[in-house]
Every structure is written in structure tokens, then in C-alpha cells.
Design goal:
The chain is of the alpha+beta class. It has helices spanning 66-74, 95-110, 117-131, 137-141, 177-181, 184-193, 202-216, 221-232, 253-258, and strands at 4-20, 29-47, 52-57, 60-63, 79-85, 146-149, 158-161, 167-171, 237-239, 245-248, 264-266, 274-279. It is 33% helix and 29% strand. The strands form two sheets. Strands 1, 2, 3, 4, 5, 6, 7 and 12 form an eight-stranded mixed sheet that branches. Strands 9-10-8-11 form a four-stranded antiparallel sheet. Bound molecules: adenosine-5'-diphosphate (ADP) and ligand 2JD. Ligand 2JD binds at residues 14, 17, 30, 32, 34, 92-94, 96, 133-137, 177, 241-243. The site of adenosine-5'-diphosphate has 22 residues, from helix 1, strand 5 and helix 2.
Length: 280
């Protein structure tokens, strides 16, 4: 019987962000605010002679994950990894960070690496920044709630509050994070659009996120049609960063979003990544 460890990490919908360039990777990342969600990634890690990754979603299987392969190599282990998620990948749900945190949490236990929670997070954050799959999702997803990151990296202050309301989200298709992070022009627009403060409550979070989305010029025409339908119904909503999708709250949110595609009903997460089991 091959030794196995299983762990889970929540995902994260970023509402607004600004890249912060540090002198090293640990102080490079983003400031901004987003909501940590109860849907994320479950990762099963088994001892193996060489690293392989299977990604399961919605009955489909794909292979390979550059951020996970990078991270496992950096901590010096080989493993057979299987990740599972229900939300669409590349759609702004922070699944790359969740996959990294879940996989590294499981690997740390399976291989008795003795990494602290911060050590696991630092390895995940490094992979995100180096692979251009994210900037602040790892820091946000270390805890739950609506998370406002006041500095880059995994040790900066994060202010959190925990709304009870569900978050409804839908995706009209992926927006490859690396394509945005790699564009100097787009990142300049994003920096100029940054709202410079933390949200006071959930409605304020939607207001700041929507203002950012409009000023960053990231809203595609089909996403705008969904946002305008939310506006007409008085539903607070904004664009999932970075994905061609919309997130919203309120009694009418699910019905309005359902007119445009599949709706995911999400709860605000109360905690970050955790180990589920180790099978000796
Ligand atoms: N569930 C997952 N399991 C394994 N790798 C993943 C997963 N989700 C994302 N990744 C890896 O991260 C890369 C970038 O994902 P990204 O566009 O950042 O997705 P998201 O917006 O959901 O974070 C993907 O191409 C894939 O290699
Ligand atoms: C918005 C983003 C830069 C990317 O988020 P995702 O596409 O979900 O990986 C995030 O990491 C952030 O810093 O807020």
C-alpha cells in the first residue's frame, strides 16, 4: 500500500488588487481584497519515483500542472498528485493557489518535511509568483472571510471579516492570469484603478471591486452584459479577477446570473488549508 496524504484548500475570488514588486519573491505579490470561498481544491499526494499531476474536474481529467511541479521540485520531493475541484480552472477562483496549498500541505505531512504553515505558504507563494499564476491568492487563502491584504507576501497584515451571506458566481470562460500579469500596459491600468483602502463591509467590497473593474478596463463585453443585468436588478456584483466571470450577492443574485450560465452558490470560507488524512 502506497503511503498517501489528502488535504484541502479554499479558493479565492479577488475583487481588486495591485502588484507590489519586492526585492525578492517573498516580498513580491499584491495588495488588495477578495473573498475566500468554501469551494477550492482537494489534493491527494502519494509517494512516487517521479512527479506526476492529474487534474480532475467535472468528470474530465487533464495532466500536468507547472506550478505544482515547480513547488514539489523546490521542496525536493517526487509525488503522484491528484487534484479535484468543482469550479472552473483559470476563471478567477484562485484555484492555482488552492491546488498549491492543498498539495504542499499534504506533501509536508506525507514526507515528514517539518515545514511550518508559513513554510508551506511561502513555497506556494513562490510558485505562484515565479509561474505567474497569481500574486495574492495564497496569502488570502491562509484564512477565511473577506480578506484585505495590506502588504505583499504571506507574512503581511490581512484584515478579515466574515459575512454570512452566500456569494453567487458564474464564469463565461477563462482569462489566463499570466497573460494579464505579463502585460505592462494592463498592469499600469490596474495600478491606476486600485482603490487604496480596505472595504468596511460586503456591500462596500462590491462597490470598491466594481469601481476597480470599470477603471482597470478589464471588463469584456459579455461580462459587462451580466453586470448591467445585475445593476438593473439592484444586485451588488463585480468581475472575478482574473477571470471572465461575475460574482454577486443578495436575494435576486442567483436568478439574474442564471440567465447567463451555470451559477455556483458559494459560502464564505471560515478557515484556510487543512490536512484531511494520512493513509499509512
Ligand atoms: N485544480 C488545479 N489542479 C492543479 N493545477 C491547477 C489547478 N488549478 C490551476 N492549476 C494550475 O495553475 C495554472 C494557472 O491557473 P490560473 O489561471 O491561475 O487559475 P485560477 O484563476 O483558478 O487561479 C493552471 O494552468 C494549472 O497549471
Ligand atoms: C487577481 C490575481 C492576480 C490572480 O488571481 P487568479 O486569476 O484567481 O489566480 C490574484 O492573485 C491577486 O493578487 O489578487
Amino acid at each position: 500500500m502506497v503511503r498517501t496524504a489528502v488535504a484541502f484548500s479554499p479558493g479565492h475570488i479577488s475583487g481588486y488588487f495591485r502588484r507590489i514588486e519586492g526585492r525578492e519573491i517573498a516580498t513580491t505579490g499584491s495588495i488588495g481584497a477578495g473573498v475566500v470561498i468554501d469551494e477550492g481544491v482537494r489534493s491527494t499526494v502519494e509517494e512516487a519515483g517521479e512527479t506526476s499531476v492529474r487534474v480532475l474536474r467535472d468528470g474530465c481529467v487533464s495532466t500536468g500542472s507547472p506550478p505544482i511541479e515547480y513547488a514539489l521540485d523546490r521542496i525536493g520531493v517526487c509525488a503522484r498528485v491528484t487534484t479535484e475541484c468543482r469550479l472552473p480552472i483559470g476563471a478567477g477562483f484562485g484555484l492555482s493557489a488552492a491546488a498549491l496549498l492543498a498539495t504542499l500541505t499534504a506533501a509536508n505531512s506525507l514526507f515528514d518535511l517539518g515545514l511550518s504553515a508559513d513554510g508551506v505558504a511561502a513555497a506556494a507563494h513562490e510558485a505562484e509568483v515565479v509561474q505567474r499564476t497569481g500574486l495574492g491568492d495564497v496569502a488570502a487563502s491562509l484564512g477565511g472571510g473577506v480578506a484585505c491584504r495590506k502588504g505583499p507576501g504571506i507574512t503581511a497584515e490581512v484584515a478579515r471579516f466574515y459575512p454570512e451571506e452566500p456569494i453567487y458566481a458564474m464564469s463565461l470562460g477563462p482569462l489566463p492570469t499570466a497573460s494579464v500579469l505579463g502585460s505592462a500596459e494592463t498592469m499600469a491600468s490596474i495600478s491606476a484603478a486600485y482603490p487604496r483602502r480596505c472595504p468596511h463591509n460586503l456591500i462596500d467590497f462590491y462597490r470598491l471591486s466594481r469601481s476597480f473593474a470599470e477603471r482597470s478596463r478589464l471588463i469584456a463585453p459579455d461580462v459587462r452584459r451580466v453586470l448591467e443585468a445585475c445593476d438593473a436588478a439592484g444586485v451588488p456584483a463585480s468581475m472575478t479577477m482574473l477571470g471572465n466571470g461575475v460574482f454577486a450577492s443578495g436575494a435576486a443574485a442567483e436568478g439574474v446570473l442564471a440567465r447567463f450560465g451555470e451559477v455556483y452558490k458559494l459560502a464564505v470560507a471560515r478557515r484556510g488549508p487543512y490536512l484531511i488524512e494520512v493513509i499509512p
